[in-house]
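pasting for ref
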Amino acid sequence: MVKKVVEASQAIAEALKLCKPAVIAAYPITPQTHIVEHLSQMVADGDLKSEYIRVESEHSAMSACFGAACAGVRTFTATASQGLELMHEILHIVSGSRLPIVMAVANRAVSGPINIWNDWSDAMAARDCGWIQLYCETAQEALDTVIQAYKISENHEILLPTMVCIDGFYLSHTYEPVDVPESLNGFLPDYDPVVSIDMKNPITQGSFGTPPHFQEFREQQYHAMNRAKRVIKQTNKEFAEKFGRSYGNGLIETYNIDKAKHILISLGSICGTIKYLLEKDNIKDIGLVRIKSFRPFPEEELREILNEYESVGVLEKAVTLGIGGPVWSELRGLTSKPIADFIGGLGGRDITLDNIREVFDKIRSSDTGVHWLGSKLKGDYDD
C-alpha cells in the first residue's frame, strides 16, 4: 500500500490507474471535473495506457463508452447533475445491452434553479435505469468501490453497469489520507468480455426487441440485479481478505446498533457526521444503518434490522415530489414500525449537528411523515 493525501476525485483516478480501462470518455462538469482531469494527466504522462476520448457532451460520453464496451473492452466515464440527465437515454441502453461500464457520479443537485452543490437528486432520478448504485462515505471507500465495481459488473452472472456515487464537494474536493494498493493482482482479473467485435464471428448487437421477446430481456435484467446482491457481498468479503478493508456486508453497514432502541438510515458522507455526533454526545439509544447499495436495494437485510427497533428515521438529500424521499419510499413497505423522513441538505445546504440532534429527538418520539430540515418557509401548508 502507498499512503497518499488526496481528494476523492483523485482517489477514483488512482483506482482507475489500477483497473486499466482501455477507453475513457470524458466531458467535464462540476463537481466531477477533477476526476477526468486527473485521468487526463495520467494518460498524458504515460501512467495510464487508455484511449482518452474528449467528447462534446455527456450524451456522447456514454455513447462512446457504449461503443467501446460493445467492442469488448473495459470502459469508464464520470459525470454529475445535468450531465447524468443528458445521458439518461443511453443509461437504459447500456443496461439493457448488459454492458459492464463503470461510471463515477459526483452527486450534485439538478436544476432548476441552477445549483452546482451537493445532493442526491441526480443519481436518484436514475435509480430505475438498471444500473447498480453504490454510495461512498469517504475517499478511501470511493477508491475501493471503483475497484470492486469492475469485479461486480464484469461477473458473467451480472453484466450490469455500476454507478459509484460520491457526494459532490464534500468528497470530490476534500482531501484525506488514502491507502492506494500497489497492484490488483489476485483480485481483479483481466477483462473477459461476453460480447465483442470479431470480424470472423460476427454477431448482432443492439437488435430490435419485438413484443414476443422484449419482456424476457427485462426479466433477465431483473434477475441479474437480484443476483448482484450476492456478488456484491462476496466481492466485499474478498476485498477485505486481500486488502484488509470492508464496508459492512457490502450492501449495508451498521454502527452503534447493539444497545439502540431507534435506528437512523442514511447514505453517503453525511453518515460520517452522524457517527461523529453519536460518539460526541455519547448516544446509545440510536443506531445508524448506512445503505451502501441503493441498487440493488438490500431489502432482506433492512427488513430484518427494522423490525428489531421501536422506530426508524431516514435522513436523505433527495425528494420525490408527491411522495417524499426516495429512500423513505422504499422502506415503508418493509416494516409496520413508525418511519419518519427527514429531507435536508438539498442544493448543498449544510446539515448541522443541531439538525441531526433534532432528527434524533423526533425518532425517539416515534414521529412519522415528511420533515424538512432547517426549512425557512413559514406557516402551515394545506397539502
